[in-house]
Specification:
The complex is a heterotrimer. Chain B is built from 22 helices and 50 strands. Chain B is an alpha+beta fold. Among the domains of chain B are: 123 residues, Roll (Ubiquitin-like (UB roll)), CATH 3.10.20.440; 169 residues, FAD/NAD(P)-binding domain, CATH 3.50.50.60; 89 residues, Alpha-Beta Plaits (2-Layer Sandwich), CATH 3.30.70; 118 residues, Elongation Factor Tu (Ef-tu), domain 3, CATH 2.40.30.110. In chain B, the strands form 13 sheets. In chain B, strands 9, 10, 11, 12, 13, 14 and 28 form a 7-stranded mixed β-sheet that branches. In chain B, strands 40-41-42-43-39-33-44 form a 7-stranded mixed β-sheet. In chain C, the strands form 2 sheets. A 6-stranded antiparallel β-sheet of chain C has the order 1-2-8-11-10-9. The chains are: A mainly beta, B alpha+beta, C alpha+beta.
Amino acid sequence: MILIHCPYCDEKRPEIEFANAGQAHIARPLDPSGQSDADWETYLFIRANPRGRHHERWRHIHGCGRFFNAVRDTVTDKFETTYKAGEPRR
Amino acid sequence: MSGFRLETGGRIDRSQPVRFDFDGKTYQGFAGDSLASALLANGVMLFGRSFKYHRPRGLVAAGSEEPNALISVNRGPGRFTPNLRATGVEIHDGLIATSQNRWPSLAMDFGAINDRLGMFFPAGFYNKTFMWPRSFWDRVYEPAIRKMAGLGDAPTTEDPDVYASTYAHCDLLIIGAGPAGIDAALGFMDTNKRIVLIDEQDELGGGALADPALWPWLERSVKALTDAPNVTILTRTTAFGYYHDNFIGAVQRLTDHLPDVTDAPREKLWRIRAGEVVLAQGAIERPLVFDGNDTPGVMLSSAAKVYANRYGVAVGKALALMASHDSGWHDVFALAKAGVGISVIIDVRESVDSALILEASRLGITVYLNHGVVGVNGRHNVSSIDICDYGDQRVSRIDCDALLMAGGWTPSVHLWSHSKGSLKWRDDLGAYVPDVPNENVHCVGGCSGDWDFGTGAIIDMLPTPKDQSRIKAFVDFQNDVTAKDIMLAVREGFRSIEHIKRYTTNGMATDQGKTSNLNGLQIASSALNKPVTDIGLTSFRPPYTPQTFGALAGHAKGALFQPTRTTNIDDWAQAHGAVFELVAQWRRARYFPHSGEDMHAAVNRECVAVRSSVGIFDASTLGKIEVVGPDAAEFLNRMYTNPWKALEPGRCRYGLLLKEDGFITDDGVSARLAPDRFHLTTTTGGAARVLNMMEDYLQTEWPDLDVWLTSTTEQYAVIALQGPNARKVLEPLLEGIDLSAEAFPHMAIREGRICGIETRLFRVSFTGELGFEINVPTAYGRAVWEQLMAQGAQYGITPYGTEAMHVLRAEKGFIIVGQDTDGTVTPFDAGLDWAVGKKKPDFVGKRSMARSDIVALGRKQLVGLLTDDPNLVLEEGAQIVADPKQPIPMTMIGHVTSSYWSETLGRSIAMALVAGGHDMTGNTLHIPMPGKTHTAKVSGVVFYDPEGARLHV
Amino acid sequence: MSEALIRHEPVSDAPFVAEGVCISLAPPMQRHALRARNAEDLEGLLKVKIPRKIGASHGGIMCLGPDEWYFRSEVGTAIPTGEGLPVAITDISERSICLIVEGPRASEILMAGCPLDLDQFAVGQATRTIYETVEIIVMRAAEDRFHVEVWRSFSAWLWMAMTMAARH
């Protein structure tokens, strides 16, 4: 069980307090109705599946309750960094 | 008979005799004996039959690396444990152990015919032989192979033992309490670090337990550590797995070594988070590979030393040593000192340290250098060995009753490998040692390659003048893999050790190749004529040694397996004979049978009561979310399909929730309590998911909104009171709420008191009748329920369960998300387009409702089905076809989602998802079922009171 | 009439006592979820000091998240609704019960199922966490006393799990 640093609690907490919430930095378009079918498809369904560095969202669901962003290596399962929702991509 | 108890020596307590059974015969040992040492002391050399060839097998080792001596222990009904290593089983009075993999007896085993037919069982034999005829696999091959295969018998009854489990934290975790581990602990004992010291044996000491010269040091050290308040010592504890971020799984054996079975936990799972880990797992001696090296009586020289010095047992009267490493010489010198007869040392090397030769000569031991064992005589025990002079290839015979092997050492890098630390090859050791760590961990002592056993020659197998195809030189004893099998794999084209391993099964037995991996690697390396480092390395994975499922489950069995959530009214339902069902983790009353009633009769009675008078239903499990803040209405407007901003305080609205892909994910009736406060309801199973989804949008898409969500599912017990007499039952119990139809219309909410308890009273209906849902603080749910039951007695108030609730809602065509929808159903498909705010510029899922697949024709749509035979209730999940005469496989156009007997309507009703169903009203569809194809006509989904007249009263 | 209605609790009101530990049901209390972007908005409304650091507690108010506090008060304490303000105050008095785990083995019993290092947990510290699969809020009330807040429907399971651990 890995430890994950929650950027809100500012401490490392056990993995089972967290829930993964998919790829990070996929913002909902401000005007969905103005999106072309192709753009909307990309937003809805197209996700990265990198070998290595991956930006993903986690939620400290059994802790402070906040969603945050993380950079995790999909090969080593090590977290490079975590940062608050809304902060720029690292 | 060859092994025997020495007159003196060992750490056993000779004043405490212990009697135990092995294969039905009673033996005596002493307190402190392992099953292996006690049986050896009784002259038992035969411990089991091998996996594939059923060859007689004896002890190879004295520790947990033992590949052969797998036995079963029976501690009474349900307490049967197969595949224990006899070396790790502590004897106690009454211990009942049996050997495995033999029939009818250990000495006389029919399966041993496989050994005579050995030439027909090469590597890959099963893959090659049982390929065809294909039809033979299920009927002939598999049953026959299953009968012969496997190690030990699986227990067949439920395990009555209990198991404990815990998390633990420490600054320093030391795994292995041999001299290196103990030194590490002593070194940090005086710091303020919290230290945990783990060892798999029953006492600390590891290799020192076989070295009497170290015992005074050991005693002092153990006392110091035991007295240190910051040191926790866990013996009989196996660290079986090393996981991310210094998380170590360990199992502590608590009671198996005790004579009496009690209700105390048998084992305890330790889930340890360590700041720093020191691995002191030691090293495992390597067997040598030669013809007959699996004969009982052939064992590791270090093991013979352990048996003599720790247990006071000689493994034979006239021993021979086959060495390629100095350590074997030191071991036999120690054996001679302990009084064990050792007559011959054979070493494959042409020369060794002259000090060794001198000591051997002083002890009267004959030495053969540049010689090797090429044959072992005796089937159930060694009687003599054939050795070959590598100078002139002359073979001579030497009598002995045990042959020791000293093939060098393999550092135990198992846990290091679990932690993903890298390894480097050391030519001088012929072994991999830890290199770069991946965690905060380091290795000390033998497992780091740091030992003082001397030096040795690295060889793949002992040279032999014999025909390779005629000999059985074992590499993996437990899986019966020979050097020949590995060479065959190479000849057949396998190049990577990962493939060779899987083809030959070398290292794939329960010991994970603790004694075989390096020999297998060396043989493959020679056969491929490539350096070892070029053919790869297999990975060690948890568990280090096999562990019980009981220990891994810990407390999580029986009622503790997972929580069963119950409502405040659950006890009442139980006391009134409810039959329950699980909905998500909730236990819900399904129906309340009167005596003599089956479910059908009970549900019919409950439904009729609701339609004709009044029913009462525990709806507490409904998910509830309180949405509060100045932007509450704006938030709901963005989440739900329908408009929320204009909803007046005191009114309710049905909310339909889509995922962004346009499909229905949840629904529920919600109320506006105040301009900035809403009381949402969700489905029972959807509560947590909906809250998470809403939090997601709120936190990450619309963080500017001033609104907050709080789960109130468990703040309120919810009692649904449904039926034409509901108002009459409720009225006398209320304060501050006008129940009249004018003051309190359908889809409204009022706050007041019921029986003196504050309530949020909803006028809503999931039955189609006049109905109320009474929310009271949970602690009072049962009391209010009982008041309502008393008040309703004059109207024949009837408690109903989830089954009647399902029938009643289906009669009205109300969907259940997850039953009538499946994650691919849009509001239009479900006939709920009325709940979609057409004028809203945006809400979650709106854009997707214009996706090409969602606007396409032929989507599955929710319809009603009325069977032509009104008495026939279709099966939920049944597939629907348009033409029953079409060839199989038929084109299935949909399936039945809900189907019930409606007592109110006197016939069956059903809902179904059917391709293009909305345009099929009146059409006949076919539902093929075993034995008969049923017919049904497509209808609307509202079967009862389509005008809703019964609601607005 | 309210006097006539009795509360119905999901666990026994008789304490469980084992060697080194006592587990008991705390008396009823009020509980409110306090939410706000700015703690000052709550302080102005409630006239109490609001702890700012996640994990801290003060005067019955535990800071669980950056905009979330868990406020426990005596039954009968008047709590405003905050209507019209950029805050959210929600009554959750009966959502949970509180189990008091007390005695020299208190942290050991909790750590049987809670993955946090509770020996390093300061008196007054509070957090939402998990006991095996069940969400709890744990607050260290004293050196050898913890408060465990758990949703009612999970409390029977938690009681069983902790008393089992205590017996072991």
